# Entry
Amino acid sequence: MQRQLLPYLYIDTFNQNNLQSNKRFSESLNRGRLNKGIGESRVCNELQKYQISAVIVASAMRELSIDEFELAIKVF
# Structure
């Protein structure tokens, strides 16, 4: 049981020391996926799989403010 909790303790420690940030992670994932031509809704679903809060996801998506039409043209 102790070994199973160990990774979570590290994550909490990293969060407290500002070495890991869900906001930075979501922004980075957004940029990477959108550069590959993956749409906004799919990126949001992926972030939810990582258990990123809806507030952080919405904030990250708002900051990128992509145009889905331009993204579709870029992909096709």
Remarks:
- DSSP finds five helices and no strands in the chain.
- The mean pLDDT is 78.
- The radius of gyration is 15 Å.
- Helices lie at 2-16, 22-35, 40-49, 54-64, 68-75.
